[in-house]
Design brief:
Length: about 450
């Protein structure tokens, strides 16, 4: 039981740290579930009882006073240590002993107390809840008002909890990283081969970089030059290359490296988002190239085309999705939008021949080897590589040419991706450094040996 609790807590802490949009949300029971039916019946019985008590002559305030006590506790829970004056006000006005005495003597003004509660809620709530507070003031019936007050208090509790989550995130990040590293070390001691997949992953990344750097050397370079170029590989560069490889992973046929296994779903989601963004970016670039300068800077045109493409590519990773058919439809819609926009602004619409060419170019995007598709993909990868390399800086790197129309979406994905990568580095960098120390030493020895042989 303790182990299960520890794993649950670690998973929750991990989620808070890596998911910048993490929020605590109210539990929603399924619409026709037994739990929801029971809850609704119990709540209805309670509110009916309250209404019946208040309609008695004279009114009975037992339930109402209990509710005021709960409201008081809620309001006090929102206060910070320095809110001395507000604490005194709440304690004084919502003095339950005094309220009971007033009820017994027929002097209780429930409306006045509720008015104070709404005013205090308006003082303590987040600005986003101002509209809900305003609606409370328009409710005249006391029972519906009490119900609405508790609904808004629940929202305020969520706001408070989410504020606490955002406040503790920096501290939680360090503690969670240490805890995850400790747990992984315990696992590693029991399973010494638990870094086999990581080693293979990092080895491939090192090989990729070594090949890339050798290609970049001038053709006339000697073996000495090649050895020198490859020996300049550093641990950070190889790690970044390894993380980029996760965005091209074959999740069906290849196991994920052990140290990123907890985030496999997140990396896969980012991979799918990038694959869709690649097609969107390619279609946009093809369209703008065909339309020429007349439409490139036209306000709203890029967003219209982007929306069309996004909608028609929805579900593109489902087995039932037919990419060729969708691209054919996109070609039709895009041509219609281009001609409409050209006509509206006094330009000559596309001829049938130009339409056919554009539709053909859009349909050709289905081929992974498409030149424009590969160009956009390489620029997206370069942008992510630059962002990884400069992730200690607050500003994003410049977006490569041709990616302007998808800049916002690309930057949103990049921020999410780099947050994930940086946290993983924080947890597992000692293991990566140890593995890469051996890999890079062996690689350098091999290259030096080749150099001496030549």
């Amino acid at each position: 039981m303790e182990t299960a609790k520890g794993v649950t807590n670690m998973a929750l802490a991990h989620e808070i740290v890596v998911n910048g949009d993490f929020q605590i949300k109210p539990a929603e029971l399924p619409e026709h579930s037994l739990e929801k039916k029971v809850r609704d019946i119990v709540h209805k019985a309670f509110w009916d009882c309250l209404e019946a008590q208040l309609k008695e002559d004279p009114p009975t305030y037992d339930h109402a006073i209990k509710l005021l006590g709960e409201i008081k506790e809620n309001l006090l829970s929102f206060l910070l240590p320095g809110h001395t004056r507000l604490r005194s006000q709440i304690t004084e006005v919502l003095d339950l002993d005094l309220i009971k005495q007033e009820a017994e003597n027929g002097a209780l003004d429930i409306s006045k107390l509720v008015e104070f509660v709404i005013g205090m809620m308006g003082t303590l709530c987040a600005p986003a809840r101002d509209e809900e507070i305003k609606k409370l003031k328009d409710i005249n019936e006391i029972v519906p008002l009490f119900r609405a007050i508790f609904s808004v208090l629940d929202l305020m509790k969520m706001d408070m909890a989410n504020f606490a989550v955002s406040s503790i995130r920096p501290k939680l990040m360090q503690q969670s990283a240490e805890y995850e590293r400790k747990k992984f070390q315990e696992f590693l001691e029991k399973q010494p081969n638990s870094l086999d997949l990581v080693t293979r992953w990092l080895q491939e990344a090192a090989d990729d970089l070594a090949k890339l750097r050798c290609k970049m050397l001038p053709p006339h370079c000697s073996a000495d030059g090649a050895a020198g170029g490859a020996s300049t590989l550093c641990s950070a560069a190889v790690q970044n290359q390894a993380y980029l490889k996760l965005l091209k992973w074959d999740h069906v046929n290849r196991p994920f490296p052990e140290t990123v296994l907890m985030d496999q779903t997140r990396f896969q989601e980012i991979q799918l988002e990038l694959e869709q963004l690649l097609l969107i970016g390619t279609v946009l670039l093809v369209t703008f190239s065909a339309a020429g300068s007349a439409l490139v800077d036209m306000p709203g045109f890029a967003e219209k085309i982007k929306t069309i493409v996004k909608v028609l590519l929805t579900g593109m990773h489902l087995p039932s999705f037919n990419l060729k058919e969708s691209l054919a439809t996109i070609g039709e819609k895009v041509c219609a939008e281009v001609n409409s926009c050209l006509s509206q602004h006094g330009f000559t619409p596309f001829s049938a021949e130009r339409e056919t060419v554009l539709k053909g170019q859009i349909q050709a995007v289905a081929n992974p080897e498409n030149t424009i598709c590969r160009l956009i993909d390489s620029r997206i990868q370069k942008f992510l590589e630059n962002y990884l390399a400069s992730s200690h800086q607050k500003s994003l790197p410049a977006v490569p040419g041709g990616l302007g129309p998808i800049q916002r979406e690309l930057e949103e994905i990049a921020v999410k991706y780099v947050r994930l990568v940086n946290y993983n580095k924080m947890v597992f960098s000692p293991y990566y450094d140890a593995v890469l120390g051996k890999i890079l030493t062996e690689e350098e020895s091999r290259l030096v040996g080749k150099s001496e042989e030549s």
